[in-house]
Amino acid sequence: MVEWIEFSDIIGITIVIYVSVLTLNNSYLRKDIRIGIIATGIALAILYALDMFWYVGIYFLPVSEHTDFILNAITCLVYLMVPVTLSPFFIIFTLRKRTVRHNLGLALIALLAVADIVNIFRPIFFYHKDSYMYYVPWGLGMHVICYGAFVILLWDMIRSRFFDYEDVFLATFVAVTMFIGFLASWINYDLKTLWLSLGISYLLMYLALTALFNKVDVITELPNRNAYARAISHIKDNYNTIVLIDLNGLKKFNDTMGHQVGDQYIFSTARTLADAFKGMGTLYRIGGDEFILISKYTKPVLNDTIDSVLHKGKCDEKYGDFKIDFAYGIAERLRGDAVGDVVGKADKLMYEHKKISKQGR
Predict the structure, then answer these.
(1) pLDDT band at residue 162 using 50, 70 and 90 as cut-offs
(2) Which residues are within 8 A (CB) of 130 and not within 5 positions of it... i.e. 6 or more apart?
(3) How far apart are the C-alpha atoms of 242 and 10, rounded to whole Å?
(4) Is 248 helix (H, G, I), strand (E, B) or coil?
(5) Are 49 and 117 spatial neighbours (Cβ–Cβ below 8 Å)?
(6) End-to-end Cα spacing for the chain
(7) Angle, CA of 150, 156 and 159, to the nearest 5°
(8) Is 223 in a helix, a strand, or coil?
(9) 347 near 244, Cβ under 8 Å?
(10) What would the mean pLDDT of 292-311 be, rounded to a whole number?
(11) Predicted TM-score (pTM) of this structure
(12) 3-state secondary structure of 2
C-alpha cells in the first residue's frame, strides 16, 4: 500500500529539478538572477518534502493531541516556505531598483513568515484537530496577504525591466495560476492544487525571464534586436516617428584602447540617450553601434531632445567619462507608410548626417 505517497509533490520536485538544471546552463541570465531562481527552487523543494512528511504523519501516526501538534507544526513550516520561496528571487531581481511598492511586498512577506512561526504554538490562520486541518477566520487574511505580496512583487518586477506584450501575457498567467491555487486552498482545503500552482508558477516565471533576457542587450541593458523585431512585427500605426542613431568613433576606441573600453563607450552613450528619451518611446540597440528609437512624439520634439544631448558634449558622468558623438536621422510616418519605409528614410537621413559631420571634422 502506497496511499501515503503524494505524487503531486513528486511532480513539484520534478519541476524544480527541471528548472534548476536549465537555469544552471542558461548563460543569458545574469548570475544574480540564476542565484535567485535556484534559491527559490530549493525553498520549493523543501516545501514539497515537508508536505510529503505531513501525509506520512496522517497515515502512520495515531489520532491524538500530540499528533495534531506535529501535523500543525509541519503545516506551519510548509506555509513558511511560501514567503521563503517568494523572497530570494524578488529580493535579488529588483536589488538594483527598490521602490516603496517593492518594500511593501517584502514587508508583507516578512509578516507572513513571522505569523507562520507563531501559528505553531497559537492558531492564527489554521489548526489541527483529530488529524484534520481547519482554518480560523484569519486564514482568509493569510491568503489575501500572501497573494497581495506576490502580485505587488510581480508587478514591481515587470515595471523594473523591459517587458513586451508577450512577457506581460506570461506574467499574467503566473498571477492567475497562483490565484487559482489560493482559491482551491481556501474554498476546498485543496492544498495539493496550491502547492502545484507554486511549481507551475515557478516554471512560468523561468520561461518569462528566459524570454525577457533573450530580448535584452547584455552591455546596455536596452531591448535588443530580437525585441525590436518583435515590436515592429506588431507595431501597426502605434508610433509617429523613428530615429536611427549611429555612434561615431567606436572603431577608434576598439583599435586603440581595446574592446572593453569600446563597450564602456557604448554603455555610456546608450544610457545617456535612454535617460534623455525616457517617456518618449523605446530605444533599442540593433547593432554594434546602432540604435533605433520608436516614438509617438513628433520630429521637432525629438530633434530638440537630441540637440540638447549633443550640446552637452559628454555622456552623463554617472555612466562614464566619454565624449558623446553620434549621427542620427529622424523620419516621421506619413499616411500609407509601412514601418520599413519610415526606417529606410531615417537610415538615409542618418547617413547624410554622418557624411556631413565627417566633412566638418
Answers:
(1) low
(2) 63, 68
(3) 52
(4) coil
(5) no
(6) 86
(7) 140
(8) strand
(9) yes
(10) 91
(11) 0.79
(12) coil
The C-alpha cell at 162 is 523591459
Please say if the pLDDT value at position 314 is more than 60: yes
* Res. 13 pLDDT band, cuts 50 70 90: very high
Burial of 347 (0-12, 13-18, 19+ CB in 10 A): middle
Check: CB of residue 312 under 8 Å from CB of residue 306: no
Check if the beta carbon of residue 131 is closer than 8 Å to that of residue 58: yes
Q: Could you tell me where the DSSP H helices lie in 161-314?
A: 165-188, 191-213, 225-233, 250-257, 259-276, 299-312
**What is the Cα 205 distance to its own chain's centre?**
8
The CA–CA distances, whole Å, from 106 to 37, 86, 100, 128 equal: 17, 9, 10, 29
Q: Is the pLDDT of residue 42 over 90?
A: yes
- The DSSP 8-state label assigned to residue 317 in this structure reads T
Rounded to whole angstroms, how far apart are CA atoms 20 and 49? 17
- 326-332/132-135 β-pairing: unpaired
Domains of the chain: 7-213 (1.20.1070), 225-359 (3.30.70.270)
CA 73 to chain CA mean position, Å: 33
Q: Which string of DSSP letters, residue by residue, matches 257-284? A: H-HHHHHHHHHHHHHHHHHHTTTTEEEE
Burial (CB count <10 Å: 0-12, 13-18, 19+), residue 179: middle
Q: State the helix-helix crossing angle for 165-188 and 191-213, rounded to 10 degrees.
A: 170
List the one residue out of 83, 79, 86, 15 whose CA is nearest residue 47.
79
At residue 169, the 3 state secondary structure works out as helix
Nearest to 38 by CA among 25, 28, 51: 25
| Closest CA relative to residue 136, chosen from 66, 198, 72 | 72
DSSP 8-state symbol, 160: H
Residue 162 near residue 216, CB atoms below 8 Å: yes
